[in-house]
């Protein structure tokens, strides 16, 4: 299959819904073989089944279920990519959780879930990917899905925004650690995007209108808006891009309106 990612093997965590799903579909359209990770539950398996139906004709896709916050899950994803496709060239750390909560009454379980998925999940899975790429010996691309929340505060996101700042910082430090192995590490920073995580917030008419009016492009993002920048970072077009952060927010974060 021809395309910007022809001949490449990619893995994406949280790859059956939202931004991860859009990236998986675009990667396959661009010729990559794809391994996605999802939670080990019936809903996630149904999402994977629908993703497989939506995949381009002739595309190769597989899934690995498991809790991304567990170190072993990242290792299983990498092993599956190697066993089925014989390589791993691109790794996208996308899996994440986001819940709006009051800071003064935040419970421990909510705080721990954000640390577990967003920070531990990103750290352990990218470590597994990096180790494989080093042994493989031909470089690679690691992409962390951060957020404009890495730079901006939110009254009901005190437990969330630091985790996205951590992902950005991880990609910068990994770029330093892995450059000698020709492994590029970059971050994508989406703004508010129409995913299940944002559905309740975007259902509030006043909030949606506020975001649309403040965003220079006049709308919130769709998941596929993030897939093009992901393809760029995964492809050889970005062969000298490492440690970068790319805003995918329609201009929201630079607008004072």
CATH homologous superfamily annotation: NAD(P)-binding Rossmann-like Domain
CATH topology: Rossmann fold
Task: Give the strand content.
Answer: 5-15%
What's the CATH first level? Alpha Beta
Task: Provide the succession of SSEs.
Answer: EHEHEHEHEHEHHHE
Please, what is the oligomeric state? single chain
Q: How do the strands of the widest beta sheet line up side by side?
A: 3-2-1-4-5-6-7
Poorly predicted tracts of residues = none
Largest sheet: 7 strands, parallel
- Name the average pLDDT: 95
- Terminal CA distance: 44 Å
Q: Please bin the fraction of helical residues.
A: 40-55%
Do you know the CATH architecture? 3-Layer(aba) Sandwich
Radius of gyration in whole Å, from Cα?
Answer: 17 Å
Class based on secondary structure composition and strand pairing:
alpha/beta
Tell me the number of strands: 7
Family: Belongs to the short-chain dehydrogenases/reductases (SDR) family.
Protein name: L-rhamnose-1-dehydrogenase
Keywords: NADP, Oxidoreductase, Rhamnose metabolism
Pfam families: adh_short_C2 (PF13561)
């Amino acid at each position: 299959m021809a395309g910007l990612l022809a001949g490449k093997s990619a893995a994406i965590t949280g790859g059956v819904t939202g931004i991860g799903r859009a990236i998986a579909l675009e990667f396959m359209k661009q010729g990559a073989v794809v391994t996605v990770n999802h939670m080990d539950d019936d809903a996630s398996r149904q999402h994977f089944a629908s993703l497989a139906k939506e995949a381009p004709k002739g595309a190769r896709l597989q899934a690995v279920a498991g809790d991304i916050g567990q170190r072993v899950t990242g290792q299983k994803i990498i092993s599956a990519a190697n066993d089925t496709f014989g390589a791993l060239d691109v790794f996208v750390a996308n899996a994440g959780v986001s819940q709006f909560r009051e800071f003064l009454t935040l419970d421990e379980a909510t705080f721990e879930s954000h640390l577990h998925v967003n920070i531990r999940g990103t750290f352990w899975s990218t470590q597994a990917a990096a180790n494989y790429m080093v042994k493989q010996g031909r470089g690679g691309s690691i992409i962390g899905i951060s957020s404009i929340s890495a730079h901006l505060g939110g009254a009901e996101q005190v437990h969330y925004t630091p985790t996205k700042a951590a992902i950005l910082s991880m990609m910068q430090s990994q770029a330093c650690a892995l450059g000698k192995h020709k492994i590029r590490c970059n971050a994508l920073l989406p703004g508010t995007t129409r995913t299940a995580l944002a559905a309740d917030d975007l259902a509030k008419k006043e909030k949606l209108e506020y975001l649309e009016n403040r965003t220079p492009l006049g709308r919130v993002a769709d998941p596929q808006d993030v897939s093009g920048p992901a393809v760029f970072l995964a492809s050889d077009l970005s062969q000298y891009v490492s440690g970068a952060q790319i805003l995918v927010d329609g201009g929201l974060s630079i607008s004072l309106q």
